[in-house]
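Allow me, if you will, to draw on your knowledge of protein folds for a short while. I have a record of one protein: its chain in single-letter code and its fold written as C-alpha cells. Could you please explain, in whatever detail you think fit, how the C-alpha cells follow from the sequence? The record follows directly beneath this note:
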Amino acid sequence: MKTFTRRATLLFLTLLLIAGIGFPPASAVRAQHTDVTVSAAISLKDALDDIKGAYASQAPGVSLAMNYGASGTLQLQIEQGAPVDVFVSAAPKQMDTLESKGLLLEGTRKDLLGNGIVLILPADSTLGLSTFQDLLKPEVKKVALGEPVAVPAGKYAQEVLTHYGIYDQVNAKAVLAKDVRQVLTYVETDNVDAGVVYTTDALSTNKVKIVATAPPESHEPVIYPVAVVKATKDAAAAKAFENFLSGPQARAIFEKYGFSLANE
C-alpha cells in the first residue's frame, strides 16, 4: 500500500509540473526582458548613445536598439510597418504626418528638445566668411546642405537662406546630403567650402568652425518631438523609455551635447 501511495504521489507531482504549476507564467518570464527599438534623428546619435548606456543600469531587463537616420526616412520606415517603438524626429513635420495617419500612440507625443542652425567651414579654411550672405562670394564653390524634403536640417537651411533672399543662388552651389551628419562629414573632409548644420553637430567635432548662427526669426523653431509608435509590441516599456528621455539624467546628457530643452 505504501509503495502504491508513493507512486501515486509522484504521478500527481509530475502532472502538476506538466501543467506548469510551480513555475511562473510565460508572460512573467517575458516581462523580465524586452526589446525597445528607437528610431531617432541622426543629429541625436552622440547623446542617445550615452543615454542608452545610462538607461541600461536603470532598466537592465530592457535592450535598446537604436536606429538613426534622416527624420523623413525614418518616418517612411514607420509608415511602411518597420518595427519601431519610439520615434524622435528633428522636426514636427514628420511627427505631424504620422499623427495624422493614426500611427502614434495617443497621448504620448511631446516636444523634447531644441537646437540651433549654424554655418560652418572646415577648421583650416582661409575663406573670410562671417555671414550666411557670404556664401554668395565667388570663391565659395560648394555648399553642403541636407536634402530639404527628407532632412529637417536641410529644410531649416532652406528657410534661413530664403530669409536672406539668397536661396536660389546658394542652391546652385549645393551638394545635397542624405542626412545632417553627411553634411558635417563633407565639411570636415574639405570636400565642400561650407555647410549648414545644427549647433550640436558643429560642437561634436574640432574639424569645423562656426562662422555664423542663424537668428531665431530666420527659420521655424528647431523642435525635436518624441512619441511612442502605435504598433509597439510593448507600450509600457516604450513609455518608460520615453519618460526617461524627459527625466533629469537624460536632460543633463542632452545639455552636455549642446541641446536646449523644449519650451525653455
Observations:
- DSSP finds eleven helices and eleven strands in the chain.
- The radius of gyration is 25 Å.
- The first strand starts at residue 34 and ends at 41.
